[in-house]
Structure prediction request, 378 residues.
Amino acid sequence: MKKPISILLVAVLSMSLLIGCSNGADPANTDAPPISEPPAQSPSPAPSPPPSPVQPPTSEPPPEPTPTAPAPVFDTGAILISAEELTAFIDDDNLILIGVINPAGEQDPASNAANPISGSYLIWTSDYLGANPESFTSRQTFYRAPLADFENLLSRAGITANSNVVVYSSDMLQQGSFIAWYLRMMGLNARFLDGGVAAWRSIGGATGNSTRLSGESVKNTFSAPDYNPASYDATLEMVIEAALNPSEWVIIDTRAAGEYNGETAGAGSFGAGRINGAVHIEWIRTLDPANPGEGLIISDDQLMQLYSFIGNRKVITYCTGGLRSAHTWMLLTDLGFDAFNYNGGWIEFSYAASADSDYPKDVISDLVDAWTDNEGPL
Prediction:
């Protein structure tokens, strides 16, 4: 048993010597140099910050850019336009100016009629009134001209569906409002100049250099973009319905007091009188008395007070042939009322009530007041 143990001891001693040598320790050689540690690594230098941008020399900050004013918008929501508003569009190539001016007034160089707005096309009654198959009777002499005839006239101005039209008058404001009404009925962007030529001249607007539209050459072929009489023109049947239903309708007589009272009758009428139940508000009551001769409209507050009795009812305006009543229609429309202009007017209504017409008298005779039959047109 002693021999194996000796062998095992020798093996253990040999292994210890081997392990000691592998760790660099040599018990038999104490003079061996110590094993040096690896040199310590120097820390990497921190990255340099990026160079600062070059600062410009101190100076005043650049001026703020001046904002560009937005281009004025031709507001077709309103019919009336002031002379001051018109100045913003006067040089616009899309603007068409139509002056409704009596040529007879042009003989006085100082008159408004002789000084129309520069660049205007001028028209008068023979251009826009006449017999029209749309009328209830061919004997109506103050009806709007047939659509095709008026389209042909406007073609001489080069008007298009996108044109912005401003209509004005010199002294007969009701004539200009009638044209604005007709153009609106055709679907055009038409507005009416408050105060006409007098208002334009009062702010120093340019005048002269205008031509009669009927004498111009045809520039294009114009068709009304949206001819819609049902939304603008009252028919005889509508007027009768309105007279029979005062809780839903108001009829406003815009004629002079003598016509309303049955004392006189306008030219072309078949009798004197008025429509039963009509409220008399002569159209000139809407003109500002503080500016006589200029034809400016009174304020919206004053207009609302004047027409406050209407309430939520629909309105029909009438006169002899739809011209004076077009002026009242325009104001009521701008105020937000649901209004119609009766182009047939008293001429048409008096014809239906007269002995000249075979219109059923059981329908019409109770709807006239202060009636006197002329037994023919005046």
Notes: The radius of gyration is 46 Å. The domain at 80-227 is CATH 3.40.250.10 (Oxidized Rhodanese; domain 1). The chain is about 25% helix and 15% strand. Confidence is low (pLDDT under 50) at residues 1-44.
